[in-house]
């Protein structure tokens, strides 16, 4: 790519602004021919031609196919050169690591997965993540990395990229997750809660940039990603949506966070496993008893047993849904979403879980807040957090930090601003 010194940030502001807009119009598909760009921007034909040529010379745009003719010569379309960079996404869970690479348009090129206990700590975990990323990158042509996103199963201060007292992540509190990835890939890095990535992945899947949506993830733990008009609502410090540690009324069950009565300690996957194991010890008849002879139970065992009609498993799933529905109803009253998506391992329980959540939400929420509300299960695609991570990176790169690094033709850690 070439760099035109006249396009440096702070010089010829109107020119830079129009260039940025033209690139984003083509990137989003809002305008893909020179006549369309002129119509949307109000710029003259000569100015549009000049700006497009500059965007092509820098490397952002390229010529595409010919578009439909309106009577004269068919105009040539423009395309955003999404192949010029890669986005790396690392989605970490309590018991797994999933990584992927995408093009700049968010398309997942490749991904890989391995089991992993995040309680092994940040240094070992990040080394394992790097190794898995290297394995994926090795299979593809070398292309510059434009951004890295790391999703964590715990509270994250988005501005610093540091986990804050994550209950299931010993040794991670205040750890500088961002720097090792910046040094390894020489690219800007964003660290966020995994539920936020899932919410953004749902936004991408629905192709609804203005959606009001709650993504409620119930796996080993419990969390929620909140989208307001398509934007993640993180709150003042990144704690918004951390519903796993909301107090459940009349519960004094100890939680892994050190408090008692948390939603996660009653409705989370580890809580259901705990209760199932206790029921088996107490002699309750269940198909899960045979599973414990083969090894430790997990949430998937319980959801599969519930689908097969096991009464203990069904009761545990319904109990989880009952208390989760109460907490979700409070979010509905305060946040008034149009869609609630239930995801995580619990989603495989299907209607056994979903029907109880729906009932509690409609019982406890205001009529106006539920009038147009849809409550549904996630598609349970393992690439969801990868697509969500790509959405986060693209949003940060092209909506927030673009003006600072546009003239360089590619981002770098030095050009990244404090995240908005």
From TrEMBL:
Signal peptide: none
Pfam families noted in UniProt: ROK
UniProt xrefs under InterPro entries: ATPase_NBD, ROK, ROK_cs, WH-like_DNA-bd_sf, WH_DNA-bd_sf
Keyword Transferase set for record: yes
Keyword tags: Kinase, Transferase
Any one GO molecular-function label of the UniProt entry: kinase activity
UniProt keyword Transferase, yes or no: yes
PROSITE patterns in alphabetical order: ROK
Superkingdom of origin organism: Bacteria
Family, similarity comment: Belongs to the ROK (NagC/XylR) family.
This protein's name: NBD/HSP70 family sugar kinase
Organism: Pseudarthrobacter defluvii
């Amino acid at each position: 790519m070439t760099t035109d010194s006249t396009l440096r940030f702070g010089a010829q502001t109107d020119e830079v602004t129009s260039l940025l807009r033209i690139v984003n119009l083509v990137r989003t598909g809002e305008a893909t021919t020179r006549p369309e760009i002129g119509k949307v921007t109000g710029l003259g034909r000569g100015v549009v031609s000049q700006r497009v040529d500059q965007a092509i010379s820098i490397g952002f745009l390229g010529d595409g196919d010919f578009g439909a003719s309106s009577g004269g010569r068919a105009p040539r379309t423009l395309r955003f050169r999404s192949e010029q960079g890669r986005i790396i996404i690392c989605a970490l869970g309590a018991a797994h690591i999933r990584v992927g690479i995408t093009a700049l348009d968010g398309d997942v090129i490749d991904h890989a997965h391995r089991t992993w206990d995040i309680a092994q700590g940040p240094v070992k975990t990040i080394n394992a993540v790097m190794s898995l990323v290297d394995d994926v990158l090795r299979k593809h042509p070398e292309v510059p990395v434009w951004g890295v996103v790391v999703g964590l199963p715990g509270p994250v201060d988005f501005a610093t990229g540091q986990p804050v007292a994550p209950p299931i992540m010993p040794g991670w509190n205040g750890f500088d997750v961002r720097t090792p990835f910046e040094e390894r890939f020489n690219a800007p890095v964003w660290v966020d809660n995994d539920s936020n990535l899932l919410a953004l992945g749902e936004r991408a899947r629905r192709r609804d940039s203005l959606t009001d949506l709650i993504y409620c993830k119930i796996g080993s733990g419990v969390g929620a990603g909140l989208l307001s008009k398509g934007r993640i609502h993180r709150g003042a410090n990144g704690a918004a949506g951390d519903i796993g540690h909301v107090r459940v009324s009349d519960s004094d069950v100890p939680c892994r966070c050190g408090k008692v009565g948390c939603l996660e300690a009653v409705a989370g996957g580890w809580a259901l496993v705990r209760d199932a194991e206790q029921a088996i010890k107490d002699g309750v008849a269940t198909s899960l008893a045979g599973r414990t002879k083969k090894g430790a139970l997990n949430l998937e065992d319980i959801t599969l047993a519930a689908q097969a009609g096991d009464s203990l498993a069904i009761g545990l799933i319904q109990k989880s849904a009952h208390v989760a529905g109460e907490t979700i109803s409070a979010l509905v009253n305060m946040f008034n979403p149009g869609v609630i998506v239930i995801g995580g391992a619990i989603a495989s329980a299907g209607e056994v879980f979903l029907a109880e959540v729906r009932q509690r939400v409609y019982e406890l929420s205001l009529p106006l807040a539920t009038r147009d509300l849809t409550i549904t299960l996630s598609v349970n695609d393992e690439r969801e957090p990868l697509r969500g991570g790509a959405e986060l990176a693209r949003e940060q790169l092209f909506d927030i930090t673009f003006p600072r690094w546009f003239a360089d033709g590619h981002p770098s850690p030095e050009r990244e601003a404090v995240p908005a």
